[in-house]
Design a protein that fits this description.
By secondary structure, the protein is mainly alpha-helical. Among the domains are: 196 residues, Four Helix Bundle (Hemerythrin (Met), subunit A), CATH 1.20.120; 231 residues, no CATH class; 199 residues, nmb1532 protein domain like (Four Helix Bundle (Hemerythrin (Met), subunit A), Up-down Bundle); 139 residues, no CATH class; 54 residues, 2-Layer Sandwich (Herpes Virus-1), CATH 3.30.40. The chain has 44 helices and 19 strands. Keywords: Metal-binding, Zinc, Zinc-finger.
Length: 1271
């Protein structure tokens, strides 16, 4: 159980400092969205407002990127070691949210380039801002609900503080000194005080470090920092590639000039000297010399490793290269954003070159890829990797030498010429702020070990304390670090060991991994200990450490920084190449392509995602036109409610079926929690849009009926609401699209790995088993319009294969008008199925065979190949069976109805969805009369001759031959069954129709109906041309046959006594749309006004209950609707498609309660009753009182297994037998016997029941009831 972060103070959980950043980000996003909304209202904002938006968005992007990078590389990496499967989803979400900023900057650039600011562009900016706000806030809310409670549970106070300190040490100082006061400025005073106390405990106790960090926090009191500093900080530390014109941005030069009131150019203060040592900018040569020296030493060491084949020092070399690469990355950033920014202002006429960044993306990718392989420590590959590293380093050093030569000859010369000494010093000082605090400490220490005494003095002079108190404290800290490195306290060898330890254990925070990596200048200084709510006390130097969690080592915080954060910020493309994501994409499969992904059952969910994304794109497109086109709204409203309904079902099936199956199968706890929270938040957003649509609908109705002076106001409000709708549609399209992409990237490859093909089929079968007939009627046309031809065939084949043991094909045929004729959905199985032959009229098939000698065009039946049959419409309703191609073209089959669905427009598709439930196959369509007359006129001799002819035909395979022979033998019966009901009685003399009167359910004649059903109509029985209230009333009155309800086409309203086609409401004007019943099924021809009933598409029957997915699910193997509590049950294939072994009545269509025995067989509850006596608190015995069977038997009549737990009963028999005295003549004699067959089980209630009998399923060892309701 996760704890909530609400009510927890920051001083008790330092990791909540990141939550403070969440609060600041939320507040900033709200402000930005407010500004963009205001800009839309004023329609022509000043350009200064656009510039301010630009600066704030750039700062927000920078702050958010570092926040996300720190979470990915520090917090999440540490959490993943202790709580698996949590952080991957959030890291993927960071990448998707980061891409949202691109559209914002694109729109702002367009606004700045336009001569006149267009309202449409401002609305786009407002919508994009709203999308970013919703996406980031939702992401942070999920983190606060799952990630941060886990961090508080899994990490101690000191470990949390260590993580926070790593974050602080990994952010560039220039950004950090603005980020901290920006964050605290959005907090209330109480939380600001907690932040100060938290920072004091997180930061090491060394005085200068504490003073520097606290000076950054104090900047929140400076009135200019949120206006001037933020904008120029972003310009100084720009990582964005947005093409912003330089004239639109504040310059570093003008910033300093306005801030200090000085002229920084060389013209302001004449200073000419030929002594290079007097120019501070030449101090950068010291960096160049040290870097080249170390790289040469590393290259020599690599050559020695290759020659000696001793790779023990290769890890140390790898760490040194990473460190130097980090130094070069920030050096390049400083040159580009600090030095070149000033030169572009003061020496623009002299710039005859453009800056080329070094290292480039390809160089970083090549170097880090080899280092990544070395870290894998594959000993077999180490010699080859060492050789590749040597070649890569030589190539790297060649480019570096050219880069340094260019700087020293071109850049430094211009700076010496156009910048005075003070400006040069400020540039150097600012360039150090480009580095993170953790990296800077290592860099200063490393550089000072390479300097001579004279060089050290010159370097210290270039960073002498000046300016504000914060600058003085920071400069003093740098001086201390220089003295430590130069004094020899940190030798080069010791520095390299610390560097290797830091890279090795950067993600760890336990004491054995952080020893000797502390920030403390004095090794005897101890960090603070936390006592009561923020009270801090320092340990005395001589006090021994006894904290077992620190393994008796000296308490120190890490001085660590994340190299991966630098890659995320400066080289995101290279990082993606180094750590690619395993994307799972469903691409359009072309016919015959061998490169296509094979279809898997789990693609059922991916296809739903595809249809969902297409529908969301439609909403974005149409919502932009609704304001000007009233006619689009009604269609839009219907489709959105349909998608909302289907999305709710889809998200529930993922949360309740797919995700739990993945967690259980792969032991992947927590892996789906983030996506489950997405479903909840997206469901709420769908509801918000639905509420807005309802309001627009009401307003549209008011406009259509309004004739007063408020018309203009209503139209204005209508347009505003339509604009809001468009923005919400774009937001849900973006957020839900990203969510679906993350699911397909993160989770669905795991389904492929963890589940076999059959297991995936079972999962989809469970999902379909919870899907109601009404949902399928909406979902099938909706899905088909979004899928390609091959995808339609694959999906329908999958569904029909999964439901092969059920009546799904029958339901599909009856629901979808003309399915049997057109055969518009792909076939189910790869094996021949004789039931498929029956989809065409058997008499016509046989007649065509007899007239064409088996070789006519109407019926071609080839041997089945490895890919099965292709079924295509052919002739007058006759099917053509053609063998599939064997060249891998599995999608050659053309599905006529699927093609029709694919081509119909969106409006027709929606009408299909709305009206599809009313479509059933029209009965009574017959063959031409000549076929019937042919079979009726055949004599016995003719029939025998036809049978002999078929038997002797060697071209027929056994299956086809058996089919034709069976049809010939039953041809007369088939013709009689196909005779249409005569309606002559209805049209000529309706008074003569028996039963044409009202019937009542009660003696007082208050409600229409019969003892079986409450309804307001009677059914016209086509078989006997009479009216009956229900089919059971017909069967009770007529003894020679049963009523075929599916041939029923007419009914009689019992109020007006008018006979009319079947419908839910009376068509007579006098009845004014009187409902015949609350429930009406057009397939079963069932009316009921009393109970909750649903139609199961897999039983193809109406059942009593609230429906699939609510109370029941359909087991595709058992072919039965079961209670949701019976997900785990004894499963036998088609176990309910049998007769009761006692009374021999069909169980599948029975209305009596049915018992599921422990062995898996079934029988009627009335044939088997169990009573339990519990006189003394223990099981005594089982009494079977059924007259038919169980009064003499206790075993299953089919398999002879025990019907219950008989151990107690057998024990009592043993006791009774032991008490019997054995006659003397038989004493000692024994007789062999077979062991008894019995077992103990706990069988739960099989559903599809009405609650009119006791639920014995709660009592162990007792068999309980199943009750089917077949109307």
């Amino acid at each position: 159980m996760l704890v909530s972060i609400s009510g927890v103070r920051l001083v008790d959980a330092p990791i909540l400092l990141l939550v403070c950043f969440h609060k600041a980000l939320r507040a900033e996003l709200v402000e930005l969205h407010g500004i963009t909304s205001l800009s839309v209202e004023i329609e022509s904002p000043a350009r200064a407002l656009i510039l301010d938006l630009l600066a704030r968005f750039r700062f927000l992007k920078l702050a958010y990127k570092y926040h996300c990078a720190a979470e990915d590389e520090i917090v999440f990496e540490s959490l993943d070691l202790r709580e698996e499967n949590v952080v991957c989803a959030y890291s993927l979400e960071h990448r998707s949210i980061d891409e949202l900023f691109v559209s914002v900057f694109r729109i702002i650039n367009r606004l700045m380039e336009e001569d006149e600011i267009l309202p449409q562009t401002l609305r786009e900016l407002d919508i994009c801002t709203d999308t970013i706000e919703k996406s980031i806030c939702r992401h942070m809310l999920k983190e606060e609900e799952q990630v941060f409670p886990l961090l508080m549970q899994r990490f101690s106070f000191k470990e949390q503080a260590s993580l926070v300190w790593q974050f602080i040490c990994s952010v560039p100082i220039m950004l950090l000194e603005e980020l901290l006061p920006w964050m605290t400025s959005y907090l209330p005073k109480e939380e600001q005080a907690d932040v100060i106390l938290c920072i004091k405990e997180v930061v090491p106790t060394e005085k200068l470090i504490q003073k520097v960090v606290m000076s950054w926090l104090d900047k929140r009191n400076e009135p200019s920092f949120r206006v001037l500093h933020r904008r120029d900080t972003v310009n100084l530390y720009s990582i964005s590639n947005e093409p912003i014109s330089l004239k639109e941005l504040p310059k570093v030069y003008t910033f300093w000039k306005s801030l200090y009131g000085e002229d920084c150019s060389s013209e302001g203060k004449i200073y000419h000297t030929d002594n290079a040592k007097d120019h501070p900018i030449d101090g950068l040569r010291l960096w160049h010399t040290s870097i080249k020296k170390d790289l040469n030493e590393i290259l020599d060491e690599l050559h020695e490793i290759r020659s000696s084949m001793v790779f023990s020092t290769l890890a140390s070399v790898s760490c040194q290269l990473k460190f130097i690469a980090d130094v070069l990355i920030f050096n390049s950033a400083a040159l580009e954003n600090v030095f070149f920014s000033v030169l572009s202002e003061v020496a623009s006429d002299c710039l005859s070159f453009t800056y080329q960044r070094f290292p480039s993306n390809s160089q970083i990718e090549g170097l880090f890829r080899i280092l990544q392989d070395i870290n894998a420590q594959n000993e077999i590959c180490l010699p080859k990797l060492a050789e590749k590293l040597c070649l890569q380093l030589e190539y790297f050093m060649t480019g570096l030498a050219k880069h340094f030569a260019f700087q020293e000859s071109e850049v430094f010369t211009l700076i010496r010429k156009h910048c005075n000494l003070e400006l040069q010093q400020r540039l150097l000082y600012t360039s150090l702020h480009m580095m993170p605090l953790g990296l800077l400490k290592f860099v200063i220490t490393w550089l000072s070990t390479h300097l001579t005494e004279e060089e050290t003095k010159a370097f210290l002079c270039s960073i002498k304390p000046a300016g504000s108190e914060a600058d003085i404290s920071f400069a003093s800290l740098l001086h201390e670090w220089v003295h430590i490195g130069y004094s020899g306290k940190t030798s080069l060898e010791k520095f390299r060991r610390e560097l290797q330890e830091m890279f090795k254990n950067r993600s760890s925070f336990l004491s054995e991994q952080i020893e000797n990596t502390g920030f403390s200048l004095d090794t005897s200084v101890q960090p603070c200990k936390r006592h009561e709510h923020g009270q801090v006390s320092s340990n005395s130097p001589d006090k021994s450490i006894s904290d077992t969690s620190f393994h008796k080592t000296k308490e120190k915080y890490n001085t660590l920084y994340s190299s991966e954060i630098n890659l995320q910020i400066h080289f995101p493309e290279a990082l993606k190449e180094l750590f690619p994501l395993s994307k799972f994409l469903i691409e359009k499969r072309d016919v015959g392509s061998s490169l296509n992904l094979p279809f898997k059952p789990i693609d059922h969910i991916i296809f739903f995602h595809k249809a969902l994304k297409k529908e969301l794109e439609y909403f974005v497109l149409v919502s932009a036109e609704i304001a000007e086109n009233f006619g689009l709204f009604t269609e839009f409203h219907k489709r959105f409610h349909l998608v909302t309904f289907l999305y709710k079902i889809h998200s529930d099936t993922e949360d309740e079926i797919a995700f739990p199956a993945l967690v259980a199968k792969g032991n992947l706890l927590n892996i789906s929690d983030s996506y489950t929270m997405d479903h909840k938040l997206e469901g709420e957003y769908f509801n918000d849009i639905s509420t807005l649509l309802d309001e627009i609908s009401e307003l549209q109705f008011e406009i259509s009926t309004c004739v007063d002076a408020t018309m203009d106001w209503r139209m204005l409000k209508y347009r505003q609401m339509c604009i809001k709708l468009h923005g919400m549609c774009k937001t849900i399209c973006s957020t839900l699209g990203n969510h679906v992409n993350r699911e397909e990237t993160d989770l669905w490859p795991l389904f492929m790995e963890c589940f076999s093909y059959e297991e995936q089929e079972k999962i989809i079968g469970i999902i379909l088993g919870r899907t109601t007939a009404e949902t399928l009627q909406h979902m099938i046309p909706w899905l088909m319009t979004s899928l390609s031809r091959g995808e339609k065939d694959d999906l329908m084949s999958l569904w029909r294969k999964i439901a092969r043991n059920t009546m799904f094909d029958e339901w599909l045929s009856e629901w979808w008008e003309g399915l049997n004729k057109k055969h518009d959905l792909a076939e189910v199985t790869q094996k021949p199925n004789i039931s498929q032959l029956g989809t065409a009229d058997p008499l016509e098939i046989v007649a065509n065979y007899l007239t064409t000698g088996g070789h006519g065009e109407g019926f071609t039946y080839l041997e089945v190949g490895p890919t099965g049959y292709d079924l295509e419409p052919h002739g007058n309703g006759i099917l053509d069976f053609k063998a599939k191609k064997t060249d891998g073209d599995t999608n050659n089959y053309q599905c006529s109805e699927c093609a029709q669905l694919h081509e119909m427009n969106d409006k027709q598709s929606t009408e299909k969805v709305v009206n599809v439930r009313d479509q059933v196959r029209k009965p009574g369509k017959l063959l031409p009369v000549n076929h019937k007359e042919h079979f009726l006129s055949m004599s016995q001799e003719d029939l025998e001759a036809a049978i002999r002819r078929v038997s002797r035909d060697l071209t027929l395979n056994p299956q086809k031959k058996a089919y034709i022979l069976q049809t010939l033998l039953t041809s007369r019966w088939i013709v009689n069954q196909q005779k249409p009901p005569s309606d002559a009685t209805l049209t000529s003399n309706e008074v003569e129709i028996p039963g044409k009167f009202s019937s009542y359910r009660d003696e007082l004649k208050l409600s229409y109906g019969c003892k079986h059903y409450k309804r307001n109509c009677k059914l016209f029985a086509a078989c006997c041309k009479q009216l009956f209230t229900c089919r059971y009333c017909h069967d009770d009155d007529v003894s020679d046959h049963s009523m075929d309800r599916k041939s029923t086409t007419k009914m009689m309203c019992m109020k007006c006594l008018e006979i009319q086609p079947l419908a839910q409401k009376c068509s007579s004007l006098s009845c004014d749309g009187l409902s015949m019943a609350k429930y009406f099924c057009n397939i079963c021809k069932l009316y009921d006004d009393d109970r909750e009933i649903y139609h199961c598409p897999y039983c193809n029957l109406c059942r009593v209950g609230k429906g699939l997915g609510v109370e029941y699910f359909h087991c595709m193997n058992c072919n039965a609707c079961l209670s949701k509590s019976l997900v785990i049950h004894v499963c036998r294939e088609k176990c309910f498609e049998s007769n009761c072994p006692i009374c021999h009545e069909d169980i599948f269509t029975s209305i009596l309660p049915v018992k599921a025995l422990p062995c898996g067989h079934t029988m009627h509850s009335t044939c088997f009753q169990v009573f339990i006596l519990n006189s003394f608190g223990i099981w005594c015995y089982l009494m079977f009182c059924c007259q038919e069977y169980t009064n003499t038997h206790y075993t299953c009549p089919i398999c002879s297994k025990s019907l219950g737990d008989m151990q107690v009963y057998f024990g009592m028999l043993d006791v009774l037998l032991a008490e019997e005295k054995v006659p003397d003549e038989h004493y000692g004699q024994t007789q062999g016997s077979l062991p008894s067959i019995g077992f103990t089980t706990n069988v739960l209630t099989v559903a599809l029941t009405t609650p009119d009998f006791f639920d014995w399923g709660q009592i162990p060892g007792v068999i309980v009831s199943l009750k089917l309701h077949n109307s």
